[in-house]
Amino acid sequence: MHYTVVERELELNLILSPERSIPVPARLSYHTDDPYAVHVIFHINSENPVNWTFSRDLLVEGVFRPCGHGDVRVWPTKSQGRSVVLMALSSPDGDALLEAPTAQVSAWLERTLRAVPPGTEGEQLGIDDALDQLLAR
Asked: Residue 107 CA to chain centroid, in angstroms?
């Protein structure tokens, strides 16, 4: 089985207050063998990168309208005239509000959607093949 990884490095802003943010290098990562999930790795150049995994559908929807609840919420907005996507992440270790450029996130998502079109994720997992083999015995 051949798997594809679609990655993009970009700079996110960690929002500390309405007036203050700091740049955080990050990598968006999508693996066709885990077709429902996207991975966002923060502090990629540090000793302790932080990896968040959540639904690709959530990020796709969040580019257009507010969505998500609980640990991960995503919504579009404008910041200084630019289109951005905000991601609110909550964990027992703390909360973070991150801002990503919509154009870069959208371009990367389009690449993931070309690799695995929406609705075909189950085929990537080979579940149908495994079931066929199981039932053929």
From this structure: 12
